């Protein structure tokens, strides 16, 4: 049996036994077909099903290199390799054609996308004008306090919504807020006076400001759902022409990016963000460099 015929049998199995969606089957057909096409060109003849067991690690690496030369990124090549591995697993179970080299081949690692920050003016507009999205004074005060805290202290939305009233009660000038981050790791983050003022204004309008009560609550008095905050900012960005990446988490990215641009060192930013690894924080240096190059291209006479 030729490998192309085995590919058709595999696709029938995906369709009728695995009940895969038509889009999934089409993607597997395309990816495996491209792989077999490469093997045909690479070896000078169309591979047989039995010949797949003889494919060497060097052949597989040559295929991935060929894809990279053709413009495929790491994420695309990882997806193609996953489809080919599925095909080989099926061939091993159905026809006894086993090739351990496919399992041993390292998967191309996709680069993490750079954090997308807002400009300083955009981030400030969110904190000062987000109240326009609400009709009641209490909700306006709550949203102003929440988004001011996200940008002013670089909190994750989950960290901010996990706070209780007692966490901010009694905080004075130059206050530091104790936050529980990922992995239940506590950290101290500074709270700017303008943010402290917004928090204090919200607490005066809080429907039940007991120390153990959730700091940010919804209309029913329960802890605010993150989806509500995300929806509020989504409506705000549409009305105010902000980019699609203007989300609550983008305010955290903006906090770090603007600190770095202002001269803060990476180690301090790491502590403020609660990153376990400095390499995670170092991504913001790439953001800063990218913004610098954008300014250079936009303003240099020969850019």
Overview of this protein structure:
With 303 residues, this protein is mainly alpha-helical. The chain folds into two domains: 3-104; 120-299, Intergrase catalytic core (hpI Integrase, Chain A, Orthogonal Bundle), CATH 1.10.443.10. The protein has 15 helices and two strands. β1 (175-180) and β2 (186-191) form a beta hairpin. α2 (22-43) packs across α4 and α6 packs antiparallel against α7 (137-153). The radius of gyration is 27 Å and the shape is elongated.
Say what oligomer this is.
single chain
Beta-strand residue percentage: under 5%
Q: Evaluate the radius of gyration.
A: 27 Å
Q: Per the principal axes of the C-alpha atoms, what is the gross shape?
A: elongated
In short:
The protein is 60% helix and 4% strand.
Q: What is the topology?
A:
Elements: H1 3-16, H2 22-43, H3 57-69, H4 74-95, H5 100-104, H6 120-129, H7 137-153, H8 157-161, H9 165-168, E1 175-180, E2 186-191, H10 193-205, H11 226-240, H12 248-261, H13 266-273, H14 278-281, H15 283-299
Antiparallel strand pairs: 1-2
Overview features:
hpI Integrase, Chain A; mainly alpha; 60% helix; elongated; 303 residues
């Amino acid at each position: 049996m030729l490998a192309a015929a085995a590919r058709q049998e595999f696709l029938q199995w995906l369709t009728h036994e695995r009940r895969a969606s038509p889009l999934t089957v089409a993607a597997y057909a395309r990816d495996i077909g491209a792989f077999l096409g490469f093997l045909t060109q690479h070896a000078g003849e169309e591979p047989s099903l039995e010949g797949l067991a003889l494919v060497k690690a060097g052949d597989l690496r040559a295929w991935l290199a060929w894809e990279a030369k053709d413009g495929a990124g790491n994420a695309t090549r990882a997806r193609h390799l996953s489809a080919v591995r599925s095909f080989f697993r099926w061939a091993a179970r159905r026809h006894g054609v086993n090739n351990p080299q496919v399992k041993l081949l390292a998967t191309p690692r996709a680069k993490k996308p750079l954090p997308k920050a807002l400009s300083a003016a955009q981030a400030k507009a969110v904190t000062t004008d987000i109240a326009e999205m609400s009709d009641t004074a209490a909700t306006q005060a709550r949203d102003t306090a929440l988004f001011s805290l996200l940008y002013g202290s670089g909190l994750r939305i989950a960290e901010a919504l996990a706070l209780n009233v007692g966490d901010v009660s009694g905080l004075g000038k130059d206050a530091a807020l104790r936050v529980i981050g990922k992995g239940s790791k506590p950290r101290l983050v500074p709270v700017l006076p303008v943010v402290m003022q917004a928090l204090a204004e919200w607490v005066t309008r809080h429907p039940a400001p007991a120390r153990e009560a959730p700091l940010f609550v919804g209309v029913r008095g329960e802890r605010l759902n993150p989806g509500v905050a995300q929806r509020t900012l989504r409506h705000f960005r549409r009305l105010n022409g902000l980019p699609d990446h203007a989300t609550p988490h983008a305010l955290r990215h903006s906090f770090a990016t603007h600190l770095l641009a202002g001269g803060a060192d990476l180690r301090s930013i790491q502590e403020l963000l609660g990153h376990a690894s400095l390499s995670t924080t170092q991504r913001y240096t790439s953001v800063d460099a990218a913004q610098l190059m954008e300014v250079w291209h936009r303003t240099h006479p020969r850019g």
